[in-house]
Amino acid sequence: MITHLVEKYDNVDLANIFRLNVKCSGTVFLLAIGGMFAIYYDEGSLDEVQPLFWYIPFCLLIFLSGLYVLIKQRFVKQIFRIHALFAIFLAAFTLIVLVTFVLQGIPEGSFRWSFGLPTAIIVYGIYLFRIGWLADRVDIYWFVKFSHVIAGAFVALLELIVLIYMIKLLGT
């Protein structure tokens, strides 16, 4: 069953992936801009929004390049590989943050967690990287073929640990 699903999604049309990337990056771009304005309006300073400055150029690049591919149908493979690199770097960063929370605990102060989002980010990043950079190895090595599934199970477990930490904090 898992093999069937993996093979089914390995054959998804790249245009559908570009559509998803354009929608997601456009949404995150708008949320980052809106969040910056909201925090600036509330705080009167941009000191609290430094992390959002990282999202804006990356989201804009993914959005515009994906839109270009959808409109012009040129440089599809090259631009897809760029999207895959951005996705795998985001996945690596997300995994580092998640492992830090597991090893060091939940940070003090105001903390928000979107349970399932890190798993989705990491699985999608590995999935894109597999298709964009490792397509010729997917059928040769089983661990490449199922790498996103294995990572999803591992990351879901890490998220469960973070959730347990949060429940314990609520009890104190």
Give a brief description.
With 172 residues, the protein is mainly α. The chain has helices spanning 2-10, 14-43, 50-72, 76-104, 117-133, 142-145, 147-171.
Question: Could you list some keywords that capture this structure?
Answer:
172 residues, mainly alpha, 7 helices, 0% strand, flat
**Low-confidence blocks of residues:** none
**Mean pLDDT figure:** 86
Topology as a string of helices (H) and strands (E):
HHHHHHH
Helical content band: over 70%
Structural class: mainly alpha
Q: Give the biggest sheet.
A: none
Query: How far apart are the termini?
Result: 43 Å
Strand content: under 5%
Number of H/I helices: 7
Radius of gyration: 18 Å
**Could you say which overall geometry the principal axes of the C-alpha atoms support?**
flat
Extended strand count:
0
**Subunit organisation of the chains:** single chain
What does this protein structure show overall?
- The chain is mainly alpha-helical and 172 residues long.
- It contains 7 helices and no strands.
- α2 (14-43) runs antiparallel to α3, α3 packs antiparallel against α4 (76-104) and α4 (76-104) runs parallel beside α7 (147-171).
- The mean pLDDT is 86.
